[in-house]
Specification:
- The chain is an alpha/beta fold.
- It has helices spanning 14-23, 29-39, 54-63, 127-130, 139-157, 180-191, 211-218, 235-241, 244-247, 250-264, 282-295, 317-329, 350-358; strands at residues 7-8, 64-65, 71-75, 82-87, 93-100, 109-112, 116-118, 133-136, 165-170, 203-207, 225-229, 268-274, 298-303, 334-336.
- The protein has two domains: 9-63, DNA polymerase, domain 1 (Orthogonal Bundle); 71-357, TIM Barrel (Alpha-Beta Barrel), CATH 3.20.20.
- Strand 5 (93-100) and strand 6 form a beta hairpin.
- It binds S-adenosyl-L-homocysteine and iron/sulfur cluster.
- The site of iron/sulfur cluster has 11 residues, from helix 4.
Length: 363
């Protein structure tokens, strides 16, 4: 119980630690040493931080927790997509997905992180939405997925220095922009030179379209990439599959995207799950092309992935190919990854993730 009142060390900024060290009468630069243990050497606890004095470690232990969520399972083989399942302190489970960025990329990997347990937005094609919303993840639980994957890599490979992750995509379970504060805090730690040291352009936030939060994000300093889960190019269709569209219809969403692009440049891409006889018609394709052209944005096409209890189906291969080719003909930058047998265990946009790992994000 007491644990709950203790802050996690994984949600601290360098500055807040420096201030705390100063309060303890310790030199401020020692806070940087601790960050090195966490984010360079992926230490497993304060006692591993051998250049910090024992009394300082004791004070740290009293004030901060240093516990990463244990790994429940890892699925997948080497060089393939892997799924990590983490058990949080309150027993809830969340997953992260590790996607190799392609053989020519020399061992680079993208990690897809979750931001909530469940999701309140109830998109009709999505497994996460079907189970309802449980709670937001804390900043430390989001950073913990990054640290947990790196720590797992070290245990696997025995490598001391090489880093596993080159990109982060925030498109696991949950709607990131409805957990805005914790997300921003976590990403600033993953982005910071003293922390995860991943460039903002290597970090993509995916949203179902929370227009006010997109505008707020436009005002933040870091240049995070934004992926919009569009999935339909007109309100009549989008309303049917994404309840969020009734709150923020396309004209509002796209106006917010324009504001983002004005502030950040070309940082937006559109995600489009192809669902049989719902959003795969020539008319939808033309409307999508119009939107993509307006933003000079990349489009990721994702064949619908089967979800238990959901009647939607993936369109036949010739329809998918036709949709893809038509966008190409219209001069749109577009990627499509066809399903392979082994891909089918995806719960949550895994096909798209793999594609993003190999495609746009690894350029
Ligand atoms: N809530 C955010 C973050 C990611 S949600 C968002 O909606 O953008 C998880 C992602 O998985 C979604 O972007 C969605 O596009 C994808 N996804 C969900 N269900 C899917 C399915 N059945 N087939 C393919 N992709 C799916
Ligand atoms: Fe939530 Fe995204 Fe799934 Fe929609 S697609 S239910 S917003 S996780």
């Amino acid at each position: 119980m007491e644990r709950l009142s203790v802050d996690s060390i994984f949600s601290q900024s360098l500055e807040s630690l420096q201030d705390q060290f100063a309060l303890w009468g310790e030199p401020r630069w020692r806070a940087g040493q601790l960050m090195e243990w966490i984010y360079r050497k992926f230490a497993g606890g304060f006692d591993e931080c051998s250049n910090l004095s024992k009394p300082l470690r004791a004070k740290l232990k009293e004030k901060y927790s240093f516990s990463l969520a244990p790994l429940v399972t890892v699925t997948g083989q080497e060089h393939e997509t892997r799924k990590f399942l983490w058990k949080l302190e309150d027993g809830n489970l969340v997953e992260s997905v590790l996607i190799p960025a392609g053989s020519e990329e020399g061992g680079r990997h993208t990690l897809c992180v979750s931001t909530q347990v469940g999701c309140a937005y109830g998109c009709r094609f999505c497994a996460s939405g079907r189970s309802g919303f449980v709670r937001d993840l804390t900043a430390a639980e989001i950073v913990g997925q990054f640290l947990g994957a790196e720590a797992w890599h070290r245990r696997q490979s025995g490598a001391k220095d090489d880093r596993l992750l080159s990109n982060i995509v925030v498109m696991g379970m949950g709607e990131p922009l409805s957990n805005y504060e914790n997300l921003m805090r976590a990403l600033s730690i993953i982005n910071a030179p003293w922390g995860g040291n991943l460039g903002a352009r290597k970090i993509t936030i995916s949203t179902s379209g929370l227009a006010p939060q997109i505008r707020r994000l436009a005002g933040e300093e870091p240049q995070y990439r934004l992926a919009i889960s569009l999935h339909a190019a007109e309100d009549a269709v989008r309303d049917q599959i994404m309840p969020v569209n009734r709150k923020y219809p396309l004209n509002e969403l796209l106006a917010a995207c324009e504001a983002y692009q004005r502030a950040k440049g070309r940082m937006i891409s559109f995600e489009y799950i192809l669902i049989d006889r719902l959003n795969d018609t020539p008319r939808q394709c033309d409307l999508l092309a119009g939107i993509a052209r307006r933003f000079h944005a990349h489009v990721n096409l994702i064949p619908f992935n089967k979800v238990d209890g959901c009647a939607f189906r993936c369109p036949p291969p010739d329809v998918i190919q036709g949709f893809f080719a038509h966008l190409q003909k219209r001069g749109i930058s577009v990627t499509l990854r066809q399903k392979k047998g082994g891909d089918i265990n995806a719960a949550c946009g895994q096909l798209r993730l793999r594609k993003m790992g190999e495609g746009e994000l690894s350029r």
